[in-house]
Amino acid sequence: MNSLAGNRVIWLAVPALGFLAIFYAAPLFYLLARSFIGPNGFSIGLFTAFFADAYNWRVIGNTLRIALLVTLVCLTVGYPVALALARSKGLAQVILLTAIILPLSVGVVVKAFAWQIVLRRDGAIAKLLVSTGIWDEPQRLLFTEPGLVIGAANVFLPFMILPIYSVVKLIDPRLWEAGATLGASPLYRFRKIILPLTMPGLISGMAFVFSMSVSMFVIPSLLMGDRFQTLATLTGRSFLLMRNEALGSATAVVLLVLAVSIVVGSTWLSRRIGRSG
Amino acid sequence: MSDPAFLDVRQATKSFGATRVLDGVDLAVGKGEFVSLLGPSGCGKTTLLRLIAGLAAADSGRFRLDGQEIAALPPHKRDVGVVFQSYALFPHLTVAENIAFGLKAKGAPAGVIAETVKQFLGLVHMEALADRSVRALSGGQQQRVAVARALAVKPKLLLLDEPFSALDRKLRETMQIELRRLLRELAITAIFVTHDQDEALIMSDRIAVMNRGRIEQFETPEAIYARPATPFALEFVGLSTRIAGTVTAYDEAGFVTVDTPQGQLVARGRFAAGSPVLLGIRPERIRFGTEGGENRIAPVLRDIVFQGARVQAHFVSPDDRPILIETSAALPAGLAAGMPVPISFAAADTLAYPAEAA
Amino acid sequence: MTSHSGHGFSRRDALKTGLAAGIATIAAPGILRAQAPRELVIGGAASHKPWVETHVMPFFEKKYNCKINFEGTRSLVNLEKMQKNKDKPYLSIVQMDDPVMILAVKEGLLEPITPAKVPNMAKLKPGTVHMDGMWANYLQPWQGVAYNTNVLKTPPAAWAEALDPKFKGRIIVPSLQNTEGLPNLFMFAHLATGKPMVEAYKEIDAAFKELQKLKPNLLTVYSQMPQAFSLLEQGEAHMILGALSSFGMQRRLDGAPIGMAAPKEGIFPVPSGIAVVKGGPHTDLAFAYINELLGSEVQSKIAGPTFAMPTNTDTPVPAGMPTDAKIHTIDWAFVAENRTEWVKRWDREMAT
């Protein structure tokens, strides 16, 4: 009886699975296959050529460095916000949540243009840094890596905050108090109670942000321009402008393998750390 | 109980918005004493507990523990342990890790930690489950871990916030006795918050009856039961039969004569003639027949409820108030609902309180 | 690659042109008398649709008693439409970028135009008819130097000014992956070698070396043109080298503080080509359409709104357009051969 009902329920997943199979798995398979076909059938020539080129290593380096930095910034900024959000109540929480979710409805292009205005030499950030004396004179932020990291982190921040928030919300606030009455300092309580309990949210937030920033295309092309290539911009250009499908497939596959292995690897690692700590 | 004010709270006051939750509460607890804060929900008992633990800040008042001012100390520097109503066990840790938490946080040597954890696992009979995740424990087991965890750091004072409320009745009774024994053995000073009068009566050295942000009576269970200081204490602690009336005469010995719908009754109390009063009698002090004391009435029997060792007889007075008798003795023969039955009780057991505006 | 100097035009020339157009209408050819309205399908750029519909369609449909169906899309899509329907083409005319025209010619998809069928060919400027008449340029939007008029009070007189250290981090150039990115490569070859453009443009090595000197002054290399112009308008950038006149002049007209300069080294016309599809329907109408587009009457109407230079020598250059600039025509065959290699090199050498 139960197993029958269970089997029936599985059918509910069919439309979603079918959608994914047709619009995700099939093109992905085509892409993978395409990158392994040379003039004479199966070949890994595209990849050997790709990896033999020092420039491509630089592109891989760019891709990973930016994605890691964006993830780090989102984590540092987003984690306290998620905690505050989970502990806030009533109107304050509604306002915070709206402030976090509403920007998702603004397109990436619009945001990138907005950041272009903020990052200008006469933009808000430069003015702030000059007026606080950190900078002697306005410097260029736009089309620099820090500018790109700031802009991308802004776009992806909700994807760090929301998974952490959803986990923090489930933590009994009494645990924090219990830790205090046991003589644990706030820092110790954070390290030994809050951090391990929020680890699942932290991991999914980092996986979201990392995989989105490793594959972002519009943001670097608008905030960094053409002089800074990542695997994603290289792939996009190969398909859209250079009509070099073979190269595009190869870079896309490298990107996919990198992103998947880093996300899977870091998940495994942080689970281990979470367990032993 | 050498030091009468090991914990000394003076004029503790706390409001949430416009609501005054604690209204100038004084509470002095001796070393090694087990005190219950008893009262209905919203009376301020949990708030008082949280103020003592430092989990909330008082608006005003002094808090001294073991001769030290603690009002300004953060909770982790107060040496006050808490067993929470929900237990608040750390779900990502095992039983042993939960118990070790406070010791580790204070940087105790590994050897001491291992030994203490072992000792407390033994005290709460949880040795076999030491490496079990706390998520996999039953309610009673969780409660034991919570107690062991709080005690392992050897706090000066242990606060317990309705720790038995989630347990079923049978388990609750076992755990009450077990906890009482454990705290006595370790000579722990403890304050226990409960709304369950039986629990308070069973466990406490002294009970503070709380109502509307104030302590109405703070005495031994026996004294509170025998001589409730206020109608609230009378009503909240134990069962009572209440009869309203007006004082017609008083004497120097501290007795008043009261005119009631049941006729004239004599009660303990000092009131001027003409004062409206409420008379309270414990149901077990009322006897069938006329031999129970000076006050004799004959209300109509409504129902008899058999409760095993005891029997309750419900009457109704002419002004439609319930009158309750509780007895362990055999009932007189020939009782039937609807008939008037003579009953009696002593003037000394009849307590007069000022009548609240009805 | 060819270079030549543009001609000045006067009001009188404009009058002459109008008169000529009037006479052409009176002496309308025999196809006017055809009975049922025929449909002429044109494949062009989506951005052309507005001016085609306003300035060309009503005029042409009335004059030749036909219907025009303008399919506005991208050049590469037009090429695909021709390839797929090679056996039975439904497009009569294509309006595409010159580099795509080369591909179409290689696949044998185009029908050459001749002065006999298209009399206005004779009036065209030099360098506007390509590959023995396979296609012609009806308009020349051009690429020069766009500058912020708040920052630079006088238009830059030379492309080489962009190398001045005072423009550190203030110059924008298009990516070489964009078609409009190519002129800078040739201009820097010219600046490096000092040779005339017709010889210099093949010296790509020298060009890349010279471009290194530009790097400290680069704000960014754009792939999205609107972004580059918004940076220029905001004053974050001071110049765009190789800016498209059609875009820059439109922004200026909209009130942006932008000027378009035609510096002394010259400017580059942007190829707006038109060609007849081989074997397409209504060839007679197709040639007539091209003749009109190459004619002075239509060109004088569309040159203004598109901020382009006319190719018909009878047509006056609209106000605000350079009249005496050196004009360099790009050797698209050379580009097609080497572009992939250049982009690869550009990525490596221009990277931050």
What does this entry look like structurally?
The complex is a heterotrimer of chains A (277), B (358) and C (352). By secondary structure, chain A is an all-alpha fold. Chain A has two domains: 35 residues, no CATH class; 231 residues, Orthogonal Bundle (MetI-like fold). Helix content of chain A is 77%, strand content 1%. Chain A is built from 13 helices and two strands, in the order H-H-E-E-H-H-H-H-H-H-H-H-H-H-H. Chain A has a two-stranded antiparallel sheet. In chain A, a hairpin with a 2-residue loop joins strand 1 and strand 2. In chain A, helix 8 crosses helix 10, helix 9 packs antiparallel against helix 10 and helix 12 packs antiparallel against helix 13. The longest helix of chain A is centred in the N-terminal third of the chain and has 34 residues. Chain B folds into two domains: 229 residues, Rossmann fold, CATH 3.40.50.300; 116 residues, no CATH class. Helix content of chain B is 24%, strand content 34%. Chain B has eight helices and 21 strands. Chain B has a six-stranded mixed β-sheet with strand order 6-7-8-3-9-10, sandwiched between helices. In chain B, strand 4 and strand 5 form a beta hairpin. Chain B is elongated. Chain C is of the alpha+beta class. Chain C has two domains: 180 residues, D-Maltodextrin-Binding Protein, domain 2, CATH 3.40.190.10; 151 residues, Periplasmic binding protein-like II (D-Maltodextrin-Binding Protein, domain 2, 3-Layer(aba) Sandwich), CATH 3.40.190. Chain C is built from twelve helices and 16 strands. In chain C, strands 2, 3, 4, 5, 6, 7, 14 and 15 form an eight-stranded mixed β-sheet that branches. In chain C, strands 8, 9, 10, 11, 12 and 13 form a six-stranded mixed β-sheet that branches. About 7% of the residues of chain C have low confidence. Chains in contact: A-B, A-C. At the A-C interface, helix 6 of A face strand 10, helix 8 and helix 12 of C.
